[in-house]
Amino acid sequence: MTTPSIGQLLDSTVPMAHTLNLEYLETSPERAVLRLPDQPAYHNHVGGPHAGAMFTLAESASGCIVLAAFGDQLHRAVPLAVKAEIAYKKLAKGVVTATATLDRPAADVVAELDKGERPEFTVTVDITRADGDVTGVMTITWTLRPNS
């Protein structure tokens, strides 16, 4: 039996992410890179990706890095997004890419979990358009809630 990829896991457990036809370019504990294809059904009033689609892209990238970094902890804790903030910096047009990174080493987060704590950590996601310009930045605070 083949183990599903992080992208397949996200698509199967988060139907909203699946609807956007996200492309999973890289999903590692160090970095997650997802791309939102240019799809007219998800355009806004100026012909670029809708803010909600960009939010979902960025949040999905953050979820992928969390699954990649902490998937081996799912037997004892559930990852939950606590809060998210997004800043739209420039007009996005065409294909956009989200790149997520953890704010601190995963081992530090797991060490807090080992001590019986409910660790919180931040994932930063840069959203770029095809020319490389950053069109948005999302910061998501996650927690690993220990199973009862």
From TrEMBL:
Domain of life: Bacteria
Gene3D superfamilies on file: Hotdog Thioesterase
Descriptive protein name: Acyl-coenzyme A thioesterase PaaI-like protein
Organism: Kitasatospora gansuensis
